[in-house]
Automatic annotation (TrEMBL):
Domain TfuA-like core residue range list: 50-166
One Pfam assignment: TfuA
InterPro entries, alphabetized: TfuA_core (IPR012924)
Lineage: Bacteria, Bacillati, Actinomycetota, Actinomycetes, Pseudonocardiales
Protein name in UniProt: TfuA-like core domain-containing protein
Superkingdom, taxonomy of origin: Bacteria
Length: 231
């Protein structure tokens, strides 16, 4: 089956290509689905992980619905894909991953939760998505790495920042002014050791779901994502 996946800062091309042999395109924008559907042989499945929303008009739910009306199976996760899947899954779009579940349930609803700035050349993230921070803090609290109050204040500080300024080290620097030194050391050590990257984990789950859809005889090859905290 012909398939296309739109990716960007959530997962790098090398990692994505190792999981699924399809056509990968940069973050989706308004009009991209129409171009795919206009091909002599349109894709039979499309996955949306990342999308544009400042540099270009973002993809609309209507475009997703039009693709599904044409018989395309649509998948979404992680970032723009999670947003559109939460809106369009009642009509048949396949939502995948924890971030999609947060939006679909209504536990989070702001677009800026998944927003990041990124390098246009290599599509690498230059800031941290708020939703990743939420899952990281939930995991840290569950592990007892730092006090729940410290984690809550970390998230409050992050949410107050404009999304391009949301970088873990910036939030930690601001948090340091408010918490005891030993508590700061604990949360700083947690992030230094490597916090969960939920956007990437969800992108891998989308690729696994598409792989199974494209070839049902092939069993998923990636292990289930460890539950390291919930929002």
């Amino acid at each position: 089956m012909r398939a296309v996946v739109f990716i960007g800062p959530s997962i790098d091309l090398e990692s994505a290509s190792a999981e699924l042999d399809v056509e990968f395109l940069p973050p989706v924008k308004r009009g991209d689905l129409a171009e795919l559907l206009a091909r002599p042989e349109p894709p039979e499945a499309i996955g949306i992980v990342d999308g544009r929303f400042l540099q270009s008009l973002c993809i609309s739910p209507k475009e997703v619905l039009e693709a599904m009306d044409r018989g395309v199976t649509m998948f979404g996760s992680s970032s723009m894909g999670a947003l559109r899947a939460a809106e369009c899954s009642p009509f048949g779009m396949v939502g995948v991953g924890k971030i999609y579940e947060e939006y679909f349930s209504g536990r989070i609803d702001a677009d800026d939760e998944v927003a990041v700035t990124y390098d246009e050349e290599n599509l690498s993230a230059l800031s941290e998505p708020m939703v990743n921070m939420r899952f990281a803090i939930a995991a840290g609290v569950e592990q007892g790495a730092f006090a729940p109050e410290t984690g809550e204040r970390f998230l409050e500080i992050a949410k107050e920042l404009y999304f391009p300024q949301r970088v873990n080290r910036t939030v930690l620097m601001l948090l340091r002014r408010e918490v005891p030194e030993d508590e700061y050391a604990r949360i700083a050590a947690f992030f230094a050791a490597g916090a969960p990257d939920t956007k990437r984990e969800d992108a891998l789950l989308l690729l696994a779901a598409m792989r199974e859809h494209l070839d049902p005889a092939v069993k998923p090859q990636i292990k289930p994502v460890e539950d390291r905290g919930a929002l």
